[in-house]
Amino acid sequence: MDATSPGQPLSRAKRVRCCIVGGGPAGMMLGYLLGRAGVDVVVLEKHADFFRDFRGDTVHPSTLQVMDELGLIDGFLKLPHQRLQKMDGMFGGTPVRIADLARLDTKYPFIAFMPQWDFLNFLREAGQRFTSLKVMMSTEATDLIRRGDAIAGVRANTPDGPIDIEADLTIACDGRHSTVRARAGLVVEEIGAPMDVLWFRAARKANETENVFARVEPGKMMITFDRGDYWQCAYVIAKGQFESVKARGLQALLDDIVRMAPILKTGIADVKSWDDVKLLTVAINRLARWTRPGLLCIGDAAHAMSPVGGVGVNLAVQDAVATANLLAAKIRIGCPSEEELDAVRRRREFPVKMTQRMQIVVQNNIISGALASGNQPLKVPLVVRLLTALPWLQGIPARFIALGVRPEHVHSPVVKAM
């Protein structure tokens, strides 16, 4: 159905049971699960493709287990990826081991490093067998459609012009800067973080190997991931200090990096300008209220996570699984009540809060101290010394990082694909 008004561009309309805004891990996983359950669902992704650099690409055992439960794991693990089991580091020149995933009693005791666009494309392609699922690329939600006090869908821009997508239920999966959340007037509680992160790539030669995952020196911290033909690097800086780092000059930064990680000496030539360095402004926040009538927020739209532990993608996937478990059958017949929608928050709020609390502990007790230490020698924190000295303890942080506080399992309904 098309509708026009004087001076306005042609506006089309579409009606679905559920409209998911945002094609990230939460949105694509939820779209797949709802399509699998026979729900008439559309996922809106504002970009033409999923290719964005420096997005979270750590797929943890909890997510691998979900892929296994969906019967997708064999094809998924055929995609190019690297695996990490042991988290080793250098703290002020002292070798430490933080976690060992091999100690976990789980089917997939490793973290898979995989470009997020490969993960999202895999879900989109796998979901094509569900006729009730549609993914609309290059479609950006700009506002909400309201019917009284209830949210009744979204208005969006597409390459073919504006479109109104009316939906019994709208689900915001559009990230930490969620347009839907803002339009709904949901208030974000900012918890704060003492750091920001500079992301960059450095080339890796075939014969270059190193098991060091994290490096901490007085006033500096860096994480490196072996990504096959390149190193993915995260250089941690104090909150709000990016302009000060830039004022010192790019070469000064690169010199610091090579001093911390000599293995990057050759590959650092890939960083030719500040355009090759991406600033991630770290935030920890969450909503007290995840719903309005006809609307639910999940993933980063409901709670932004620190990069500590690399758990953001996996928390988003867990939210999606819980949402489908709780709501898929109800959505098939209409819009769940706000009380029914709020069951998702009641299920997921505890693991979110516990994860954020642990991230804050690490930030305040390890990262802040390291960044503020200046030229003073660093002393390995007691808890890290214990983890290194007593290997059996390494399964505790491994479980927290790999499986989370309350891992979700797929219980949502499934209809025969057509």
Draw up the topology in text.
Elements: E1 2-3, E2 11-21, H1 25-36, E3 41-44, E4 58-59, H2 61-69, H3 73-76, E5 82-84, E6 86-91, E7 94-100, E8 111-113, H4 116-126, E9 133-136, E10 140-147, E11 150-158, E12 161-172, H5 179-184, E13 188-190, E14 195-203, E15 212-217, E16 220-226, E17 230-238, H6 242-248, H7 250-260, E18 278-280, E19 285-287, E20 291-292, E21 295-297, E22 303-304, H8 312-331, H9 338-371, H10 382-389, H11 395-402
What does this entry look like structurally?
By secondary structure, the protein is α+β, with helices and mostly antiparallel strands. Helix content is 31%, strand content 28%. The chain is built from 11 helices and 22 strands. It has helices spanning 25-36, 61-69, 73-76, 116-126, 179-184, 242-248, 250-260, 312-331, 338-371, 382-389, 395-402, and strands at 2-3, 11-21, 41-44, 58-59, 82-84, 86-91, 94-100, 111-113, 133-136, 140-147, 150-158, 161-172, 188-190, 195-203, 212-217, 220-226, 230-238, 278-280, 285-287, 291-292, 295-297, 303-304. The strands form 4 sheets. Strands 1, 2, 3, 9, 10, 11, 12, 20 and 21 form a 9-stranded mixed sheet that branches. β10 and β11 form a beta hairpin. α1 packs parallel to α4, α1 packs parallel to α8 and α8 (312-331) runs antiparallel to α9 (338-371). It is globular and about 60 Å long. It starts with a strand and ends in a 16-residue tail after the last helix. Residues 1-8 have low confidence and may be disordered.
